[in-house]
Amino acid sequence: MRIAYWCLPLLLASERVQATWIESLVMPGDVVAKHAHLERECAKCHEPFDKGAQSRLCRACHTDVAADVDGGRGFHGRDESVGNRACPSCHTEHKGRAADIVRLDPKRFDHRATDFALRGKHVGVACEACHVAGKRRREASTLCNDCHARTDPHAGSLGARCANCHDESAWKTVRFDHQSTEFPLEGRHRETRCDRCHDSKRYTETATRCAACHARDDKHRGSLGNACQSCHTPRKWSGTGFDHARRTHFPLLGRHSAAACDKCHSAAVAVRLTPTACRSCHERDDAHHGQFGAACESCHTPVDWRRPTFEHSQRTRYPLRGRHAEIRCTDCHRGDLHTLRLDPSCYACHRNDDVHHGSEGAQCANCHDEHGWSRRVLFDHASTAFPLTGAHARIACTQCHQSSFKNIARECVACHAREDVHHGKEGPQCERCHDAATFRVARDPR
Which of 141, 246, 302, 319 has its CA 20 to 30 A from that of 327? Predict the structure, then answer.
């Protein structure tokens, strides 16, 4: 039988209508209402003789679910037991227009299988509070601000990232990590409430200078400037952690270490450098009244102001020995130490003590030393024309030298005329019969 070409489209159309009619006859039941528009297009969900193709065809339409499975997120992607199962195993069709193919039981649903596990206060919240009627449950927002914008005490000034400071346990509980900012909290700052620094709920552009918060606590009243961190730390405001030895050229030693800062720093240290000369602080304490100049450290130390430590033996050409080591500095130094040069001769200091009244000259060291001016004589009589022997070595100098030490007669009668038992009859040459050992013993002149 021959069919005209113009009849072919009608025949093909008739075959399609016939196939659809046949499929509708074997269809087990009506599809759900949302799929009703696909009811006459079975190929959208089925492939002949390939039951496994159903999940692939479902995901071809439900691309959001397919993306969750491929990305490992959402309810279908997080649980492998769900994502790897065929779609019809959970979502059966052809149960009628009003059938529930989602089969979700809100009371038994485990929210941990989603991207938003319920914790803290969220556990007791009704589903409808977040899942708005008429919208798919997956469309519920996970951003805090979308639900809590009306209760935001910051009124949006800190943005929408509420989770940076708050969690689900309690809205008022703050867990902000201040260490991640340019002002990490240390010491007492860790114990301070947020609103002590962030007044009026303002958390941006907060001043970080100490004086911004502690101006009322500044016992210096601004006289030392605003760089409080130079001396203080957040651990203890009342103490000072300033390392004077390391950060300045003036280490604090002795009594200086116990002195209060404002004893020396009377002005702002950031504005004016504090002088380090001793007289800048101790001018009123100068017992010399400026007589010895301004180089106090030449003789004194911070350990004990009243005890001079000048090493006279090492730093001068006049070591102090004997009685000189016991006298006061001012007994010799009566003028400016740095401009007035002292005469090191004995006579320069002891002119008034000279019992010889200058008759023996100014070379006192020929007979005396520093250990005793009046009781110890070091003159070597053997270096003269009259060496002392016998009883002469034991007598005091003044026995012979009554008025002078020069041009003294050496004849025996000059001293012993009164003791001459011969009354001059044997002449003045006593040494012919007597010697210096004892005057009363005579020897044979022959």
Answer: 302
SS3 assignment, position 47: strand
Residue 443, token pair as written in the block: 């020897």
- Pairwise CA distance, residues 354 & 396, whole Å: 17
Cα separation, 357 vs 215, in Å, equals 75
* Verdict on whether the full-model pTM lies above 0.90: no
Beta bridge partners of 96: none
Please name the residue that has the structure tokens 């004849």.
411
Q: Determine the pLDDT at residue 35.
A: 92
Residue 114 burial (C-beta neighbours within 10 Å; 0-12, 13-18, 19+) = buried
Could you write out the DSSP letters of every residue in 122-152?
Answer: GGGS-GGGTS-TTS-GGGS---HHHHHGGG-
Q: Supply 173's token pair.
A: 């509980």
Q: What is the three-class DSSP state of 439?
A: coil
Rounded CA-CA distance 446/432 in Å is 9
Cα 268 from Cα 274, distance rounded (Å): 9
50 pairs with which residues across the strands?
47
Task: Give the residue among 161, 138, 143 at the shortest CA–CA distance from 75.
Answer: 138
Residue 296 has a CB neighbour count (10 Å cut-off) of 19
In one letter, which amino acid is 414? A
β-sheet bridge partners, residue 236: 233
